[in-house]
Amino acid sequence: MANQSAAKSGPTGRGFIGTMAAMSSYDDESYLDFIEGLRMFALRSMNPSSARALKSEIDAGKIKSENPKIEETRAVADPIPVIGIRNRMLHSTQGQNWAGVVDSYSKNRAALEQELTDAEKDGPGTLRWDPNFVYPDYFTAIPYHRQPGSYHADPLSGHVYHYGTKVFHGGSNDKDEAKIERISMLPMPADGVMNKFLDVACAIGSGTVAAKLRWPNAEIHGIEIAGPLVRYAHMRATRLKSEVHFSQQLAEKLDFADNTFDLIYMSTLLHEMPLPEGRTAVKEAKRVLRPGGILVINDMVQATKPLNIWSDYDRYFDHRFNNEPYAYNYVHSDLDSFLNEEFSSVKNVVQGKTSTWECVK
């Protein structure tokens, strides 16, 4: 529920939930709380049941290969009732989530858009963006994660993304808790020098602001391709009085000089790009990283051999039904070999569904 002491503040008139504007009404907020609960039930209860059901079919010999093609897996998994219900629930709650957020914020569209405009020249940080920015075709081809207008086509895409991901993460990042923890785990360069930090594909800037909290004396930058997201990131940072510098850029064509940054963070970007562009983005990060600096990549776990068949099926579901057009190819792309060719040393740590690569130039 919105902070009642701040109910008269904020662009929707209902204060804030964590660092985001509250929904336009209590009913809208309650509806999205319900959708969040359904999604969490699907992930925490139906996912394990679905994985066990598929394993039973594998144990019964329904899938012969240790590394089956996705078509073979789907032929067995799709007809399993609990998997079908899980799939339907995840697909439906994703659509209901976005529709609810868009509908609620649209009731206060004028005030929300004015807030973005008013913040553009505010500090203590800075913003560079171009309303005529030319987006690459791969980015505009689909609405990512089925967000209406994707990340770039609606001036309120940053607001929608922020509240939509609140539902997606089950509220675990409402006050940037998850991002602060992730940033706290980043390594320091071996020489201990930390003057300049870059957050690549910073989205709404949660991690960028968290970096400023960890390194208050460092110069902190965040770049993002989507104009509405980078505008929202700056507006949000000014509200939090965080001196960070945001700019609209392509990850695969940075406008920073060579050897600029001590530490670069690239989180959940590579699976959102075609493989050639993703490889170029890594090389660009390497270019602007100073010798001895570290590039940290946090993203989906690469596919294993033998294959984790349930994980492969789950990833393909996202690819097919949740507008993740590049993710399935990414997890089968052998990122490890590519990184080991590019950097002097690479350390990879797997935690659950994510991997972290620490790459030293």
Describe the overall structure.
This protein is of the alpha/beta class. The protein has one domain (1-361): 3-Layer(aba) Sandwich (Rossmann fold). The protein is built from 13 helices and ten strands. The protein has helices spanning 26-59, 70-77, 81-106, 109-119, 137-140, 157-168, 177-184, 206-214, 227-239, 275-288, 309-321, 327-331, 335-342, and strands at 16-17, 20-21, 126-128, 196-200, 219-224, 245-248, 261-267, 289-300, 345-351, 354-360. The chain has an eight-stranded mixed sheet, sandwiched between helices. Strands 1-2 form a two-stranded antiparallel sheet. A hairpin with a 2-residue loop joins strand 1 (16-17) and strand 2.
Walk me through the topology.
Layout: E1 16-17, E2 20-21, H1 26-59, H2 70-77, H3 81-106, H4 109-119, E3 126-128, H5 137-140, H6 157-168, H7 177-184, E4 196-200, H8 206-214, E5 219-224, H9 227-239, E6 245-248, E7 261-267, H10 275-288, E8 289-300, H11 309-321, H12 327-331, H13 335-342, E9 345-351, E10 354-360
Parallel strand pairs: 3-6, 4-5, 4-7, 5-6, 7-8
Antiparallel strand pairs: 1-2, 8-10, 9-10
Query: What fraction of the residues are assigned to beta strands by DSSP?
Result: 15-25%
Overall form: globular
Put simply, the count of helices is 13
What integer is the average pLDDT? 94
What's the CATH H-level homologous superfamily? Answer: Vaccinia Virus protein VP39
CATH class division: Alpha Beta
In CATH, the topology is named: Rossmann fold
Q: Quick one: biggest sheet?
A: 8 strands, mixed
The parts where pLDDT drops under 50 for at least 5 residues are 1-7
Fraction of residues in helix: 40-55%
CATH architecture annotation: 3-Layer(aba) Sandwich
The separation of the N and C termini measures 46 Å
Number of domains: 1
Give the C-alpha Rg: 21 Å
Encode the helix/strand succession as letters.
EEHHHHEHHHEHEHEEHEHHHEE
Looking across the biggest beta sheet, what order are the strands in? 3-6-5-4-7-8-10-9
- Helical/strand content category: alpha/beta
> How many strands in all?
10
